[in-house]
Amino acid sequence: MNDVEAGTEIVSAGRGVLLAVTDVVEESPDARSLVFTVPEQLRDRFTYRPGQFLTLRIPSDQTGSVARCYSLASSPHTDSELKVTIKRTVGGYGSNWLCDNVSAGETIEVLPPAGVFTPSSLDTDFLLWAAGSGITPVMSILKSAMASGSGRVVLCYANRDERSVIFAAELRELAARYAGRLTVLHWLESVQGLPTRAQLTGFARTVFSGSATFESFICGPAAFMSVVKEALSEAGLPRERIHLEVFQSLSSDPFANEMSCAADHSDGGDAATVRIDLDGASHRLRWPRRATLVDTMIAADLDVPYSCREGQCGSCAATVLGGQVNMAASEVLQAEDLADGLILACQATPVSDELHIKF
């Protein structure tokens, strides 16, 4: 937390912005939401899509600070303020610090919204799956689809017990308001046990009723997402309609504005040429063979979207329209994404001599 005025851009950190916490909402015994107000002059930078996340800088006595990503539970279609939800995890420094130390009126350094766990269109049917705090980005998608979409939404939400349910009252209110379009199913381990693949496959088949038009978004523990993905595939949903959110702990500092010398000197003149379409403008750059696209764009003073620089958050996702790249890591991209030409710019190095990439 900081004493600097909210809305200030932190020049020394390079990329962060201080946002004021205007409210703290206790969502369940072990989860709370932080509500941020975005100053008018920063509205464009904090425009977001349902399902995206914020990266928060959290003070640390050992390292000075740590960065943690938390999904937005607010919807850009219904909410004027940003809301992230944090659930305590055993041994989790960031979640426990935020739950124990943040009050309304304080400020936190934040990076703009990022992430690829977001629908391409709201005018479709959705089958949403969440477990525990995985409800956070799913809630953003659900509210957006209800407010601005035209299809049906079915949510299957798994928790240990009734007390663990985050957004319980809000989900009841939404289900009542959109009774003709929204179905909410709670799965409680204390009552029903852990869901099996066979049970989830049967449920999915009932929802689909022979239709494969649903888009399915899944967020929760890895084991939960794996069994749901298998169930959906068995039920006949095409793989390209199954979307998983994957978070990893960050080991680097995404708030630092690092300028990579590698982009200028590492290849002794051996470089590709890349055309980059970014924010409505086209740029043509020399791309050294050993430099990542993010490093190359930073060196060229382009405002490239990125956060972790480790291939774990999806902030720098882009599409290859021409040419070929090597990817060092792609944990947040599925095989179908890669086949469609999606890459992570922080992990991509050029193979072809000429490339065309769009953000």
Automatic annotation (TrEMBL):
Occurrences of domain 2Fe-2S ferredoxin-type (ranges): 272-359
Cofactor(s) needed for function: FAD
InterPro entries, A to Z: 2Fe-2S_ferredoxin-like_sf (IPR036010), 2Fe-2S_ferredoxin-type (IPR001041), 2Fe2S_fd_BS (IPR006058), Beta-grasp_dom_sf (IPR012675), Cbr1-like_FAD-bd_dom (IPR008333), FAD-bd_FR_type (IPR017927), FNR_nucleotide-bd (IPR039261), MRET (IPR050415)
GO MF term (any one): flavin adenine dinucleotide binding
Name used for this protein in its record: 3-ketosteroid-9-alpha-hydroxylase
Coiled coil regions in record: none
UniProt keyword terms in alphabetical order: 2Fe-2S, FAD, Flavoprotein, Iron, Iron-sulfur, Metal-binding, Oxidoreductase
FAD-binding FR-type domain sequence ranges: 14-120
